[in-house]
Design a protein that fits this description.
Layout: E1 5-7, H1 12-21, E2 25-28, H2 34-39, E3 47-50, E4 60-63, E5 66-70, H3 75-80, H4 82-87, H5 89-96, H6 101-106, H7 109-115, H8 122-128, E6 132-135, E7 139-141, H9 142-145, E8 146-148, E9 151-152, E10 160-166, E11 170-177, E12 184-193, E13 196-202, E14 209-210, H10 212-220, H11 245-263
Parallel strand pairs: 1-3, 2-3
Antiparallel strand pairs: 4-5, 5-10, 6-7, 6-10, 8-9, 11-12, 12-13, 13-14
Length: about 260
Amino acid sequence: MNDFAFHKPQDVAGAVATAKKATEGKYLGGGQSLLPVMKLGLAAPTDLVAVAGLAALKGIKVDGKDLVIGAATTHAEVAESADVKRAIPGLASLAAHIGDAQVRNRGTLGGSLAHDDPSADYPAAVLALGATVVTDRRAIAAEAFFKGLYQTALAPDELITSVRFPIPEKAAYAKFPHPASKFALVGVMVAKGPGGVRVAVTGTGNGVFRAAALEKALAGTFTAAALDGVQVGTDGFASDGFASAEYRAHLVGVMARRAVAACG
């Protein structure tokens, strides 16, 4: 790991100003994504700007028809929140099954989304629920936020401050986890709300995406049986020692059925 300067700003404005001045600055939340990448030599920031302790980035509240979660809120806090369990129980369940206890108590919502690991769980929730990612300077719709493998719409010095999740009629997430990391070999989030049915898939290789064929089937009848016979293509799907592209495509259907069943 290369040398870097460590900064601990007092507020969001100070954090952004510090990142702007850095040659290659990175925001540090819980460190569960960035620090391993740095140890492997895949990232070498000149400056780390710690944001996990900023009060303005923490908290969970219901605001009208939205559930608003601060970017520095940990996975454990999302999983244990009474507000999340009431508004979007599927999101609480998703957070409860991220990694292990250490990861859940250190990792943050904003850090996960900014890193955009192609097997991460939160991107599926953000895309399926039609959430809005709020930064220090703008609001980014879910469809515009994810740009591919480890790529997002964020500018280099842009800081996620919160995420606004529209509260759906029902939603649930199901995943087939990697046996060691607990990342999703395949994860599927299903949501039904005023805007219709949305299905988002993670873990297949190139990042999160919406499954149009599954959405179309569920728009007619929102039951697991409605997905019988629906085929999922393998374009862009990864094959590795844990699952072939064909097996991942099969798992998409299985996880989608489980998620619909979990909606009740």
